[in-house]
Structures are given as C-alpha cells and as structure tokens.
Amino acid sequence: MADAHVHDATHDDHDHKPHGWRRWVFATNHKDIGTMYLIFACTMFFIGGAMAMVIRLELFRPGMQWVDPQLFNSMTTMHALIMIFGAVMPAWTGLANWMIPMQVGAPDMALPRLNNFSFWILPFAFTLLLSSLFVPGGAPAGGWTMYPPLVLQNGASFPMLIFAIHMMGASSILGAINVVVTIMNMRAPGMTLLRMPLFVWTWLITAYLLIAVMPVLAGAVTMLLTDHFFGTTFFTAAGGGDPVMFQHIFWFFGHPEVYILILPAFGIVSEIIPTFSRKPLFGYEAMVYAVASIAFLSFIVWAHHMFTVGMPLAAQLFFMLSTMLIAVPTGVKVFNWTATMWKGSLSFEPPMLFALAFLFLFSIGGFSGLMLAIVPADYQYQDTYFVVAHFHYVLVPGAIFGIMAGVYYWLPKWVGKMYDQTLAKWHFWLSTIFVNVLFFPQHFLGLAGMPRRIPDYAVQFTDWNMVSSIGGFGFGLSQLLFPYIVWKCVRSGTPIGNRAWEGAHGLEWELPSPAPYHSWTEAPSDALIAKGAAH
Amino acid sequence: MAAVLPDAADALARRRRVRNSAILFSLIAAAFYLGFIVMVLVRAAK
C-alpha cells in the first residue's frame, strides 16, 4: 500500500486503481462513487421496504394488532423519507455517476472530490434519521410533508429530522451541480446537446430542478427549526405566522420533486425501448422538449396538493388547468415510445419488460393524477387511499421499475458479464403481479372513503386491505431476488462483449466490457459519436 | 481529465469554466434558499 502511495504521488497515473478501504472512502472515480450510491440506495430500499411491511401487517386486519398508533405514524413518515431521499434519489445519482461520463465521452465527472463529499454526507444523514427511532418520543411521525403545527410537536426527533433533511438536501444540490457542470463542460467534441442520449438530457433537466427546489425545502425546514427553538413565528398562527404558507413552500419543492424522481426513468425508458425494438427513438427532439415542458410546468402546479385548504376560485382553476396541461407533454412521450415500438423487431429481455411495465403502469398513475387534478373531485379524494394508490403507481412501477430497468440494462456493461435472465424475468413477473395486487385495491378503498395515515379502519374496508397486504408481502419478498441476481452476476455471470444488447446504441457500448476504470481517456471520434447518436 | 483535450490551454480554459459554472449554480441555490425565507418575512411584515 505504501508503494502505491509513492506511485500515486510521483506519476499522477490516471489508470491507477486504489485498493482496500481507501478506494471507497477517498473515492473520486465516478464508477466507484456510482457503485456506492447504488449499494446505499438498495440498502435504504430494503429498510424503507421493511417499514412498509410493518404498515401492511398492521393494516391486514381492522383493529390494533402489532404496533401502537405513534409507531405506525413513525413508520409511514420514515418509509416515505427513506424511500424518496434514501432509495430513489441516490439510485438515480448512482446511475448518473456511472453513465453520464460514459455517455458524453468524458473520463470522469467534472468535480470528483465534490462527488465523494456529496455521497458521504448521505450515510451520516440517514444514520441520524434512523437513530431517531430510539430517542424519547420516537421517530418523526407527522408525515413526510412535515406540516406545522403538528411537526413542531415532535419530541427529541425533531432537530434530528431537520438536520438530516438539511444534509440530504446539501448532498442532492452538490450532486446536481456536478451533473450540470459535467454535462455542460465535459462533453467530447462533437457531442452536441441534440446528440446527447435521452438519459443525459433527462438528468440535465432533473439537475436544474434539484438546484432550484432543494434549497426551497432547506429554507422551509430552517424556518421550522427557528420556530421550534428560537421563538420565531414563521408558521405559528399565534405569533402572526401562517401555517398554510409552509404548505405552499413545501409543495413548491414537493411537486418538482415528483418529477425529480421520475424524469430519469423517462430517459432510461427512452434508451431501452429503441434498443429492444431495434429502431431509432421516434421523435427524439419532441422527447427533449416534452421533458423540458414537464419540468417547467412542475413549477406552476404545486397548489393542487392543497386544494382543500381553501383558496380563491381563480387559483383553483389555474392550478387545475395547469396540472391537466402536464398530460400533453406526457402524452407526447407515451405516444413516441409506442411509435418507437410500432413495426419494430421487438424482443422481451428483462430491461424491456420493466420498461413496458413502466409504460402501462405509470400511465395508470398519470390517469389517477388527472382525476385528482379536478378540484371538485379532489375534495372527495383528498387524504384517502386513492391518493396513496396514485402516487405509489407513479413511484413504484414508475421510478422503481425505471431504476430496475436501468440496472438490468447496464449491469452487463458494468461487470462485463450477463446476469441470469430467467431469474430476472421471475423478478419482473412477481414484481409486476404483486405491485398491482398491492396498489390497485387502494383505489377502491380510497373511493369508498378510507382515510390515509391511520392504523385502524372500519370493517367494511377489511377485504381489500387484506388483498393489498398480501400484495405488499409478495412484492417485498420478490425484491429479494434483485440483490441475489446482481450478486450472482458479479460472481459467476457469463462474459459478454462490448455490446451486451444487439440493438444498443450509444457511446457506452463502444467501451470495453467491463467498462474501464477511467471511461474515455481519449475523446471518442466524431464518427463514433454520430454512430451512437443514431436517433 | 486533460487527455480529452488537444492542449493545455484548452484544459485550463475548461477548468476555469467548470469552476465558474459550479460557483454560479451554488449561488443560484443559495439565492433560492435565502429568497424564500426573505419572501416569508416580507409577506408577514405586510
């Protein structure tokens, strides 16, 4: 190891790969950091998933069985925070770290030390958040939206929650700055903006969203902190503050956040469908403009999350119509994916299966979103299980399936080996069946009036809750296949060539498999870029 | 990192661009953070 240090210091050898724990703790290589993000996200996925199992276990039957109401509320709150900030967002950042330099013809991310820092903030943030389960009064239980005055009644966990949110936000902002700077400055000569793969485009737009809205969340929770500890009354009505203002600020962050969670999935699906249809993507430029439009619209729809707080009719109409407008660019995307497959030579390997499930099931989430956008209808649906069903359709078969699709698509490139596709198809089918068993009945429960965030319910909701819980246990268990498939691939997968999939295009497939430690130490030629950008 | 570029001057220019754009986006993020706090204060003062 000492020799290695001397070697490092004297030669500045870019091909040198550090060994042992230093490789990971002091990592500046985009692939190492991407791997750490993905492992972290997977760990958080199972922790957040275990909390979902507790929720579904308690809701299996009416009455109180397993946990007290306080712990139940802690489980719903922590499940959301962990899944959003600990699983989905780090998974996307991991994929961005792995793929963006490879796809734009760069050797690494633009700011490698910042990259290391933004990753290593996360384990501390989530250790802090999870340790709040063991403090007096228990973990945060006021919902992930942290509405005052309820959240201000948290005990010792309150400052832990606020500090953890600040750290997660800082990590996201630093990661986003790195992505934007990399894409804007590190592209190979000839990699023009409109030659970039859709995954890079969607991440660029996502990064802009992150830079704009994560500080808004940070500002909101800073004000909560000063309200709690320093006597300010930003959101305390008794002191002249306005608790509804918190909701406006939170959702100004919260709605773009939904698109932060889903836009990279659009990018991945836009890579996978052409590959397995053996056709160029239909309407590449329209896809780019549609993603940009969705991102822009996400800033002007926030109050649809809070129609029932009371707002002027004009505001209700504005937010209803602007929300419905999002269906237009989303429809463009769904149409283009379908048109890409039209008369294509389709094959159904695991990434394509997950992408197709994404297409169908995310659309269900989109349609229920349109229903929720209608103000008078929303008065009925607000705070019912219909909302729970809606956003889980967006986030599970949307974001999570997008991540699964991406990992199954690029894993062979990362490790130079093909995984067990039969097992991956089992993973797909079990996930798809159980995710529908889990969430589809929640539409019925919501329409029948079952409120969300309750540990007990009226007996008429029993049957569909049992079905939903069975789906939940099945979905949770079937996810155990995923780390096993990855582990098996790393240990004993079948070696593959540079191009893992017959129809794959893009610079990443021009690199050897497994991808070298530093991606493009020499800029790819213009011809190679043009070949890869065959939209 | 410099290997992608034809010469050292270009590498230096790009390093400067990377630093400047990182600073710019950090300032934008800080402006959003402080801006919303100031907005709430101004609104409460009315």
What is the CA-atom radius of gyration of chain A, in angstroms?
23 Å
Largest sheet of chain B: none
Count the strands of chain B? 0
* N-end to C-end Cα span of chain A: 47 Å
Radius of gyration of chain B over all CA atoms, rounded: 19 Å
Helix-strand category of chain A: mainly alpha
Oligomeric status: heterodimer
Average pLDDT metric of chain B: 84
Question: Mind summarizing the main beta sheet of chain A?
Answer: 2 strands, antiparallel
Poorly predicted regions of chain B: none
Question: Which series of helices and strands of chain A comes N to C?
Answer: HHHHHHHHHHHHHHEHHHEH
Strand order of the largest sheet of chain A: 1-2
What's this, in brief?
Chain A is built from 18 helices and 2 strands. Chain A is an all-alpha fold and 535 residues long.
Structure, described:
By secondary structure, chain A is an all-alpha fold. Helices cover 68% and strands 1% of the residues of chain A. A two-stranded antiparallel sheet of chain A has the order 1-2. The longest helix of chain A is centred in the N-terminal third of the chain and has 36 residues. Chain A starts with a helix and ends with a helix. Chain B is mainly α. Helix content of chain B is 83%, strand content 0%. Chains A and B meet through helix 6, helix 7 and helix 8 of A and helix 1 of B.
Task: Note the main attributes of this structure.
A: 535 residues, mainly alpha, two-stranded antiparallel sheet, B: mainly alpha, 1 helix, 0% strand, rod-shaped
Helix-strand layout with pairing:
The complex is a heterodimer of chains A (535) and B (46).
Chain A: H1 2-11, H2 21-25, H3 30-58, H4 69-104, H5 112-131, H6 157-185, H7 198-229, H8 243-277, H9 284-297, H10 313-325, H11 327-341, H12 350-373, H13 375-381, H14 385-415, E1 417-418, H15 421-447, H16 462-478, H17 481-492, E2 494-495, H18 526-532
Antiparallel strand pairs in A: 1-2
Chain B: H1 8-45
